[in-house]
Each structure stands twice: as C-alpha cells, then as structure tokens.
Amino acid sequence: MANQVVSVFRLKCPQCGEGDLFCNKNIYKYKGFFDMPDSCPKCQQDFQIEPGFYYGSMYVSYGLTIAITVAIFVAMTVLNIFSIAGFIIADVVILTVTLPIVFKISRALWLTMNVKKSYT
Predict the structure, then answer these.
(1) ∠ at Cα 31 (27, 37), nearest 5°?
(2) pLDDT in tens, 37-69
(3) How many Å apart are CA 71 and CA 91, to the nearest integer?
(4) Whole domain around residue 43: which residue ranges?
C-alpha cells in the first residue's frame, strides 16, 4: 500500500513502481504535457487500457480540487482573514498553479486504482 502511494506521487507505473507515467517529467512545461507512453518501459504494463479510460480520472481530479478549495476556506477561516473576494482570488490563483499537479496525480491515482501491483 505504501509503495502504491509513493508511486502515485512520483508518477511511476502502478505495477512495477519504476517506469514513468508521463513522457515529460517537468510539470510546468507545456509542450508534451499530456503525453503518456502506451506502456511501461520497465514492465510493459499497458497505460492505454481502453478508449476513454482516463475519463474516470476527471472524478478524481474533481475530488482533489474540492479538497484544495475546502483547505483554502478552512485556512482563511482559522486565520480570521476570510472574505468572499479574497477567497475567490486565492482559490483561482492556487487552483491555477496546482492544475498541472492535480491533472497528473489524478491520472496516476486512477490508473493505480485499476491496476494490480506486482512489486512488494
């Protein structure tokens, strides 16, 4: 279980934990941002399981986005600096900055939830 969590955050193959999930390792580089290899270079796990497979990662992304928004709300409330305008500005800025990270983590998490691991 711990190895799977580490492989999600390191954006590695959920089966072997070694192969990269994305061709472009730089999260903020636009060119090739969405590119994924068809299979793991180490264990040959198929990353293109079926057409439309990654549509499910949108639900994971939505959940992560809601969690970030709630965290911003709670932090502003606890620090007693909450205002609607400030919240909206902070939320838009933080979500824009974390968008590439959330996108890749949600794809990695969705794939991990649907692939059995073979490493220990």
Answers:
(1) 75
(2) 999 999 999 999 899 999 999 999 999 999 999
(3) 10
(4) 2-114
The answer to whether position 96 is within a domain reads: yes
CB-hemisphere CA count at 13 Å for 79?
A: 11
Backbone φ and ψ for 46, nearest 5 degrees, come out as -70, 125
Query: For the chain, how many helices (H) and strands (E)?
Result: 3, 0
Please tell me the pTM assigned to this model: 0.86
Q: What are phi and psi of 29, to 5 degrees?
A: -90, 120
* Tokens 């709300």, located at residue: 73
Please indicate, yes or no, if residue 120 is contained in any of the structural domains. Answer: no
Query: Total structural domains in the chain?
Result: 1
